[in-house]
Amino acid sequence: MLSSTSNIKRALRTELRERRRNLTATERDGATEAFTANLIALTTSKSARRVACYLSAQNEPNTRPFLNWAAANGVETLFPISREDGLLDWAHGDGSTEITGLFGMPEAVGEPLGPIAINDVDLIIVPAAAVDETGMRMGWGRGYFDKTLGSMQKCPPVYAVIYDDELLDAVPREVHDQPVDGVVTPTRILTF
């Protein structure tokens, strides 16, 4: 049986998915350009030479132009690969060669480096459904990034990529949920 917090999260995720689906092509294109500029600015400001970043799915903020910039500018990128045991492996990739992984999400093609490969990155960029003003992240419900972030002894800065209207006053929280250090939206980079 799901807890009341789980039910609230599920309803909020449904609403947020619908909002993303209703964005026009023009709104998506404008947001992609702005996300890219802000992700580049964040990476540059952190002097990050090794970044962990997700490959965006269809209705997520588009990370691909940023990943193309990273590849062209010598920023090494690790991509998450979902495992059936609930952990993430990591792989090098070019940001454009991909397969459909577990749950129908895009994943990089590459030799898995193991879950601890992320320990050597300078910056982690994660997807999110929403983030609140304290930095609490609500993901899409599988817990992969929460497990990864919660298991790291020395975690580099973690930024979630969300649309402006997904920065909320508060998000429902469960014991396993992990906060982020900041968010990247089309209009700003916010550090908590």
TrEMBL record:
Xref: Gene3D superfamilies: NagB/RpiA/CoA transferase-like
Quick one: which residues bind substrate? L55, E60
Enzyme Commission no:
6.3.3.2
Catalytic activity annotation = (6S)-5-formyl-5,6,7,8-tetrahydrofolate + ATP = (6R)-5,10-methenyltetrahydrofolate + ADP + phosphate
Residues annotated to bind ATP: K9, R10, A11, L12, R13
- Known cofactor(s): Mg(2+)
Q: Name one GO biological process term.
A: tetrahydrofolate interconversion
First-tier enzyme category under EC: ligase
State if Iron-sulfur is listed as a keyword.
no
The cross-references to Pfam families, in alphabetical order and at most eight, read: 5-FTHF_cyc-lig
GO MF? 5-formyltetrahydrofolate cyclo-ligase activity; ATP binding; metal ion binding
Q: Which InterPro entries match?
A: FTHF_cligase, FTHF_cligase-like_sf, NagB/RpiA_transferase-like
Which terms are listed as keywords in the entry? ATP-binding, Magnesium, Metal-binding, Nucleotide-binding
* NCBIfam families the UniProt entry points to: MTHFS_bact (TIGR02727)
* Annotated family: Belongs to the 5-formyltetrahydrofolate cyclo-ligase family.
Name of the protein in its database record: 5-formyltetrahydrofolate cyclo-ligase
**Originating species:** Subtercola lobariae
